[in-house]
Design a protein that fits this description.
Strand content: under 5%
Order of helices and strands: HHHHHHHHH
Helix content: over 70%
Number of helices: 9
Largest sheet: none
Structural class: mainly alpha
Radius of gyration: 21 Å
Distance between the termini: 47 Å
Oligomer: single chain
Shape: globular
Amino acid sequence: EPHLAGFYAVALIPLLMGLPHVDVWRQLRNRKYKPQAILSSMPNLGSLVVTIIAAIWIQNFWLPIIARLSGGILAIWFSFRLARRRYGIALRRADVTRILRFIIPLMGAGVLAYFSGQGMTFFIASGPTIFKTISVEQVTLVLGVLYVGFRLCGIPDVVGSKLIQATWSPRLARSQDDPPLFRKIMLDMQAI
């Protein structure tokens, strides 16, 4: 069934999010912010282009899945292109223990944040029962258009916040010892 294949494809998204090369974040230690800025923005912009092109041929539930998958694939590609070190996997007991001690208290907040962001999903899932006067196809069409509009409205916010985080925040942190420069950078950032 095509819908079942769509669920399998959605399950690939978290896997793709875990595969980018971490050397881009390691380069931040040496104050190299350009790779992080590129990695924060280009997969989102590339995913938008892929989605617009795919929308010409595809007008069904696969379009948002293609958008998310293309963003993950582009993030992996950009991370490996921008990396300076070889990719390697290592598991050290001391690091795992330290990471778990940091992560376990945050899990409750993560579960709460996950369920607070699922309102749109619950609304879409209950669409046919809410709108009993129109057909299921019309409900699906209306909710699909609403969902695509919702996702497209969020793109400038995501790209803008990631660009500010990757470019302006490090400069702002470096300039704290120079109050006039700090004020200028802060005003420039707020003007955006």
